[in-house]
Amino acid sequence: MSTPDEVTLKLSSSMLRHGSELPLHARETVFSLDDVSVFYGDYEAIRNVTLPIGKNEITAFIGPSGCGKSTLLRSFNRMNDLIPGARVQGTVAYHGTDIYGPDVDPIEVRRRVGMVFQKPNVFPKSIYENVAYGPKVNGIKGNYDDLVEECLTRAALWNEVKDDLKKSAYALSGGQQQRLVIARCIAVRPDVILMDEPCASLDPIATAKIEDLMGELAKDYTIVIVTHNMQQAARVSDRTAFFTAELDDNGIRHGRLVEFGPTRELFSSPSDKRTEDYISGRFG
Fold first, then answer.
1. DSSP code for 253
2. SS3 for 51?
3. What is the pTM of this model?
4. Where do runs of H (alpha helix) occur along the chain?
5. Cα(57)–Cα(60) distance, integer angstroms
6. How many C-beta atoms surround the C-beta of residue 38 within 10 A?
């Protein structure tokens, strides 16, 4: 008979995303992190991460609070640049180019690598202007009416708001606002979408819609998601990276990558005991 821990560990195969079965080395790599550490002043929040991100895959970052998941995620589009004293050590290569190189424009990086935050950060504008704002600012030419409809449709929101495009985005529910933010994100034609706990403030029905949307978007975009919800990681991701926080000799916590691999394998037969302990609920 299985123990409770084994039952928890071996999540039902029906909960696992049935994504690409290709090994990562056989897929195009969008991001390649080599020995990346992120500092806030002298504090090393996360250290020595080497990690590839495959094209058109959903990669989930899981782990306990304080292990540096969100900090690492923000290094993918140089959002940490906006934090005084923050710096990145190592190489974050995007299609082979180090995005922290001296000739790289961080604004262009953020256009190609969009971000969706935990709380929907809609603009104090109409639904229409929320989607059209980015293309207008970036000088993207074309028919904005068609673009707004296309992006809202791709974000599974068009049918709910098509008659209310002039209404304030604040009139939408939390789940609708988050889908609006995703529509706004894809309106500037990014290559990668980063999602930092995008469902944390949503109810189960809104969460399910966002998860379904991620699966659809992964056909055209590469997605990296930070989540505390292991079941969500199992449902939506192709590959999962598990991080933990370790104490150094001075008792200071630093985030470390423990294990990375296909989600199905990591959840059913993790190679590191720390991963098994976290998934089975023994710690975290």
1. E
2. strand
3. 0.88
4. 4-9, 69-75, 106-112, 127-137, 144-154, 158-161, 174-186, 204-217, 230-236, 263-268, 273-279
5. 10
6. 24
Query: How many angstroms separate the CA atoms of 179 and 161, rounded?
Result: 11
* Under 8 Å between Cβ of 277 and 8: no
Residue type, 12: S
CB atoms within 10 A of CB 87: 13
Spatial separation of the C-alpha atoms in residues 34 and 159, rounded to whole Å: 43
59 close to 34: Cβ distance less than 8 angstroms: no
Residue 46 CA, chain-centre distance (Å), reads 17
pLDDT in tens, 260-281: 999 999 999 999 999 999 998 7
The secondary structure of 111-134 as a DSSP string is HHEEEE-SS----SSBHHHHHHHH
Instruction: Name the residue among 246, 194, 250 with its Cα closest to residue 223.
Output: 194
Six-digit token string for 183: 């529509």
Domains of the chain (ranges, CATH numbers) = 4-121+190-279 (3.40.50.300)
Q: Indicate the burial class of 227 (C-beta count within 10 angstroms; 0-12, 13-18, 19 or more).
A: buried
8 Å CB contact between 264 and 60: no
Structure tokens at 177: 């606002």
CA atoms within 13 A on the CB side of 209: 18
The dihedral region occupied by 170, where left means phi > 0, alpha psi between -120 and 50, and beta the remainder, is: alpha
Amino acid occupying residue 38: V
| pLDDT tens per residue across span 186-230 | 999 999 999 999 999 899 999 999 999 999 999 999 999 999 999
CA nearest neighbour of 226 among 209, 242, 205: 242
DSSP SS3 for 245: strand
Q: How far apart are the first and last CA of the chain?
A: 26
3 state SS of 163: coil
Give the model's pLDDT for residue 14.
41
